[in-house]
Amino acid sequence: MQLDSLVICEECDLIQKKTPLKSGDEELCIRCGYSLYKSKPNGLQYSLVFALTAAVLFLLSNIYPIVTISSQGLNNSTTLLGVVQILYKDDMSLVAILVLVTTFLTPAFEIGALIYLLLPLKFGMVLPGMKLVYRWMHKVRTWVMVEVFMLGLLITITKLSGLAFVVPEIALISFILLMFAIIFASINFDERNFWRQVETLITPQRST
Ligand SMILES: [Zn+2]
Fold this sequence. Notes:
Elements: E1 6-8, E2 15-17, E3 26-28, E4 35-38, H1 43-63, E5 67-71, E6 74-78, H2 80-89, H3 93-122, H4 130-144, H5 146-160, E7 164-166, H6 170-187, H7 191-202
Antiparallel strand pairs: 1-2, 3-4, 5-6, 5-7
The site of zinc ion has 8 residues, from loops.
């Protein structure tokens, strides 16, 4: 029996044989009924489309101002990165770093990683270092949800300070849509299908 025809249940550790799935079908553990795998037809394509959408939304949410700061009778609009700078200068460097990591670096990496893995695959290619990118994408994923929380925190801080208020315009709307685009991109990422495609490209001469 081939090793790659086996699957292990994450819940009860039972090793069992993979069953060929029709599209949209779900494979359940024969012992505990835990979902082992759900086939997502066109999942990788959807994932790529959402990742590319997220990239555009990411640009929009960073190009347009997200808060307006009133100081000495003057109104200044600033972008997300501008807010990070202001927080940093205002002796809130820890908050500044947290906001930068969760609302800028993490989504940027997640989007970049998805495109790096999926776009070349669409054209039958695998780029160098893809295994490393894949591993890191999984590590970073836990942080992406945190950015929802951080945006809330950011709004609270700026409101509390009485100096700034959030502009409910392009940047904020893009930011909210961006989070949904990233979530949909990762939901549709079909791991088993992804690795099957990668494997056929890396070892095209394999007969099995
Ligand atoms: Zn089980």
